From TrEMBL:
Keywords: Hydrolase, Metal-binding. This is Hydrolase. It comes from Novosphingobium clariflavum. The keyword Transcription does not apply. Residues 198-295 form the Peptidase M20 dimerisation domain. One of its GO terms (molecular function) is hydrolase activity. InterPro entries: Bact_exopeptidase_dim_dom, Pept_M20_glutamate_carboxypep, Peptidase_M20, Peptidase_M20_dimer, Peptidase_M20A.
Amino acid sequence: MSGLNFEEQALLAPVERAPILTHTLDWAAINSGTANLDGLAAMATRLADAFAALPGEVRLVDPAPVEKVDSQGRTREVVHGRHLVLSVRPEAERRVILTGHMDTVYPLDHPFQICDWLDANTLHGPGTADMKGGLAVMLAGLAAYERGDPTLGYDVLVNSDEETGSLSSAPLIADLARGKLAALTYEPALPGGQMARARPGSGNYAVVIHGRSAHAGRNPEDGRNALLAASDLALRLAAMRRPGLSVNPAKIEGGAPNNTVPDLAVLHFNMRPATPERAAEAQAHITAAVAQVSAAHEVHLHVHGHVSRPPKAITDKTEALYGLVSKAAADLGQPMSWKDTGGVCDGNNIAACGVPVLDTMGVLGGSIHSPDEYLLADSLDARARLTALVLHRLDRHGVLPT
Ligand SMILES: [Zn+2]
């Protein structure tokens, strides 16, 4: 740690692995799959207790309403857990935001529910890397930062629905991100410990298509085949693919018995634009394709969905933040490399607010979203030190270096 001045060394000296690991194990033992509302409520209570160690006020915020299209083309409300917000020094002129999520991809009935050690440094368990370890790191880093005469204000947001796209927390993310100096998000590092740079956007869509049913033998000419229209639309969407835009027609629901012209189909697809320009082009293409299919098949189409994860571009401010974190990591003796990635996360939503965001501040580990998920325990205290040092330097330098 030769790159640290005396004040920084004193700030980081008390950071220890054991309490961070204790929190990680405690939280990973609670199932908090995105649909497990009881588990999420239990997690929110534990987190509220733990984050109460910081100054400021913890509150739980109700999820925004979210609708989903079912196989009959009807919209239904999807329930979500509450989101945790901690606001510290809200009056401060310079404020940052730190975010994470309390949900995991493992439902209550998933076989992967408990932690075990694969070796002295490798903790195998659900949500260890993604991201209960990350939440524990964030808390420990903030606690260390608070011991160093802090002046930055900050909001902590821990949402309950990140793994299904943050649809019920997106307005809250945007609200809290706005006007912040910088953002740190505690997703795990990429495999091999690399930090994520640019990310594409992502949008999930459902197109409900209503045609007209008719007898397949007696009067098929009176029918308007919704299934054919859905297939036509799927082909037109697939033809939109180009560099910087992937489109995946994923599922068609609906249809009718063999003797009937089907009057209902629902086409689900995902779209990933690399840039905001590609996203706008793609949206225009979708609108045009829907109009063409409507005219060609004489059916009604209703499009649900949008690019809910806007593309995360790298700006000068982002580069400045990454430079600051790189320098801090180097001064701590923690090697750091960087890479663009195809995945999306809340960093996308934060970047869309014009706030520079580093969204892989969490632990090192791997095999996330699988029964092999693990975290490397020595990254717990290492990343907590990094968090504290980055906040301390943001505080002392006043602005991001350029
Ligand atoms: Zn995650």
